[in-house]
Amino acid sequence: MDSNFQTFLDDNHRVIAKVCRIYTDCGDDFNDYYQECIVQLWRSYKGFRGESKASTWVYRVCLNVCLSQLRIRKRTVLTTRDEIPDVCEDFDSEREERLEMLYQAIKKLKEADRAIMLLYLDEKSYKEMAEILGLTVTNVGAKVNRVKNQLKKIINGRSGD
Amino acid sequence: MEDQEIKDLWQSAGRDARFKYSEETLAQVISKGSQSVVHKFVKTLKVEQIVNVIAFLTWVAYFVWFGQYWGALGALVLNVGFYVGYKRFINRLDIPNAEEDVIGYLYKVEGLVKQFVGHYKKATVVLGLPVYLLVLRYSEGVEVWDKLTNNWTYILINLVGLVVAYVVVLWMIHLFYGRKLHKIQELIKSLQESE
After folding, report:
1. Which residues share a beta bridge with B36?
2. Total structural domains within chain B
3. Domains in chain A, ordered, with CATH?
4. What angle do the packed helices B23-32 and A3-23 form, to 10 degrees?
5. Helix, strand, coil distribution of chain A in percent, nearest 5
6. Staple A77 to which of A61, B28, B97, B109, CB 3.0 to 4.6 Å?
């Protein structure tokens, strides 16, 4: 195993886990997506020429895996409890509880809109978002505004329950 | 919650976390390879290609054994035809590269699923009749075979049965892959919609 790839995953695993988390619940599905993302990243790792930022590339690969959703279920390599990414750990503080609520709110958005929200929350510029998604910058801007408002409505509606 | 509050909360997720897979687990994940249906398509076609070669060679051997050399030649020509056809189809399949932008990738996946579904529909139509006749000939015996070439009522009943079987198989193919295709198309539409 290329140790550079391990370091690369160490630098980017939060992105992988977050993308997988907004498209699945923690469980077998999450593991399927997470491991498929790793495989796809590995396949193109050596060919990555740095024409775009590494993070842009990671978002693209992971969103493509999760959005296309054409995977076989439950074929993952079994992992130990210690290997489960942090985004799937049980929440034991108020912050983690609120974070879980945020994940649930994002999951109420349409699948395509979750991708927009993820990139927005991770503070990607409209230009980068357009590059990742293959949309125009203008269209991204309009979508961000709409999805942002939608998410706020879901969150505020929920906290008012 | 306000915008900035949501962003801060989001960015706090797993801030100090490390990649947790052991070297061994990571090696296992990578060696297992892609489990996506996209990659399974190509694997399935390669298996089909091998099964076809074995089936046709068995057929050739059968004809040779009974001294039916024209039959053997015909089976051999069909074998080569199928082999080349499959090889070309596999080479033509453009496996999308996951590094492409999302819209580009989804378009390619859509194209791939369409080609794959088209392949199965064509194969069902082309192979359905000979398989049906072969099964009838060898499971029901010579009398049934005679009726099939002389008795119009019997021919009609079998034709209806064959058409129903075609419809069921094509519907199942549509049910299995059509829904996936539809979902991909919906995603593309939803991403490209102007606000």
Report:
1. A71
2. 2
3. 1-89 (1.10.1740.10), 91-161 (1.10.10.10)
4. 70
5. 70, 0, 25
6. B28
CB contact under 8 A, A83 and B25: yes
Is B12 domain-assigned? no
Q: Which residues pair with A71 in a beta bridge?
A: B36
Q: Largest Cα–Cα distance in chain B?
A: 85
Among A69, A75, A143, the residue with its CB nearest the CB of B35 is A75
Q: Which of A77, A122, A135 sits opposite B28 (nearest CB)?
A: A77
- Is B43 part of the contact surface with chain A (CB cutoff 8 Å)? no
Domain carrying residue B67: 33-93
Tell if the CB–CB gap between B30 and A156 is shorter than 8 Å.
no
Model confidence band, residue B59 (pLDDT cutoffs 50, 70, 90): confident
Which spans in B12-151 are helix H? 23-32, 37-65, 69-92, 102-140, 142-150
Q: Hey, what amino acid is at B179?
A: R
**pLDDT per residue as tens digits for the range A77-121:** 667 666 666 666 656 678 788 888 899 999 999 999 999 999 999
The length of chain A in residues reads 161
